[in-house]
Amino acid sequence: MIERLQRLLGDGGAWEVARDGEVARELGAPRALVAAPRDLEQCAAVLRIAAEAGRAVVPWGGGQHQRLGNVPRADLVLVTSGLAGIVDHDEADQTIVARAGTRLADLVAAVRARGQFLPLDPAGLARATIGGVVAAGVNGPYRSGFGLPRDLLLGARTAHSDGARAACGGRLVKNVTGFDLHRLYHGSLGTLAVLGEVSLRLLPLPEREATLALGFDDLERLDAFVLAFRAAGLAAASYVLVHGPLLAGNGLEGGAAELARDGMFVVLLRFHGTERGVGESLARTRELLGRAAPAAELEAPEDVQAPLWLACREAFAGVSPDGGGAVLRLTFLPHAGERSVLGGVVESVAALVAGAGARAAFYAEPGLGVLRVLLPEPPGEELLARLQAFARREEGRQLVVESAPASWRQGRDVLLGTLPHAALARALKAALDPAGILSPGRLYPEEPR
Fold first, then answer.
1. How many helices (H) and strands (E) does the chain have?
2. How many angstroms separate the Cα of 63 from the Cα of each of 35, 77, 317, 352, 377?
3. Which residue among 9, 18, 76, 372 is least enclosed by CB atoms within 10 Å?
């Protein structure tokens, strides 16, 4: 097959993976081939060749999110870095069209230079591609204020395993009527199609940005603040809880350094808007602190804001994609009546981790009911069983292994059976990937052939 790919793609367009390289390590596929098409037409042709040969294909953008989901079968890795660049930027309509292999950092910078704003900041921003971020369905601290990539996605152009190319959605905010197929690809982890191009909605660049950091060494006071913030109806562009040690070693000085000590849980709030609007949000938030009484409070100076959010966003860098650690994600209903349950969940999970003889750091989205447990190494069976039992104890809780090395994920269902509607998902897979070659096993364990 490599001869056919080389004829199609030219010199340097197809090769065998290095046995000790990143692709072999992350996919557990030391004998895979790699193809690097330069446009969507070539991409579709590569898929057609693979389908005819019955070879499993794994799309690869920047490699940042290859540890999400189960380890797929991989005979051919389709690298999309050649599909890069901005196709169109309509500043008046606040939309942009970019090829899927465009680095997200480049896209964010290009939009910002024109006075507009793309609220996507997942871990590995410099490495991730926009197609990979959409396919993975991930965002960083901006998720609490702006949602996931699907909330910005207007349309897409794709290549399918039968060699067909398709377009769905559009380039305008007011799209034509019909099925939102482009949102179906969001979070599908390359199992339905290969993204070649995406259209996104943009926002105006805010007039002012301010960050308030509140350190809590008492989880009851943390819950008091979370409840008061919710009751006040305040909205933030970013609203996260970070375990203090995750902020260490990021050039934080003065009052900010106090936030990084062990035993501290730090609420980071980022407000966007007009000068007046941001000022009012800061003032109203400070009015809530009398009851919550944080151990530390800091309105981050302009030169400290960027390091704070960088530390927060890249808290996962040690475990993905090159480290040996793991991330477990627990979702839960964040409030029980007039009570925040965040502090209790954190305390319980910390006790379970310690009881299993492991170490962990924590990252949460208080308003969304998401807690991530960052482990320096993959969980042992005892810890995993304890956390699964804890998740099953209350309705609305789910636990998944969000990220771990391929060597640990091999042969496991790291999503722990949490994905719903398996029959419908398999029917969609059969319709959109009739050859059944796109990332087989990534979401649902592959059935024996």
1. 16, 21
2. 14, 11, 13, 32, 20
3. 18
Q: CB under 8 Å to 7, separation ≥6 — which residues?
A: none
Q: Where are the beta strands (DSSP E) in 24-144?
A: 33-35, 57-60, 76-79, 86-90, 95-99, 116-117
Note the pTM of the prediction, 2 decimals. Answer: 0.94
Q: Tell me the DSSP string of 149-213.
A: GGGTEEEEEEE-TTS-EEEEE-SSSSPPSS--HHHHHTT-TTSS-EEEEEEEE-EEPPSEEEEEE
> Is the per-residue pLDDT at 449 higher than 50?
no
Taken in order of first residue, the domains within the chain and their CATH numbers are: 1-204 (3.30.465.10), 208-315 (3.30.70.3450), 317-409 (3.30.70.2380)
Strands (E), 244-283: 265-273
203-261 pLDDT per residue, tens: 999 999 999 999 999 999 999 999 999 999 999 999 999 998 888 766 666 666 778 88
Average pLDDT across the chain, whole number = 91
CA atoms within 13 A on the CB side of 396: 10
Return all residues near 185 (Cβ < 8 A) that are at least 6 apart. Answer: 134, 135, 156, 158, 192, 193, 195
Q: Using DSSP, state whether 87 is helix, strand or coil.
A: strand
Q: How many residues does the chain have?
A: 449
b/e map of 212-229 (b: 16 or more CB within 10 Å)? bbbbbeebebbbbbbbbb
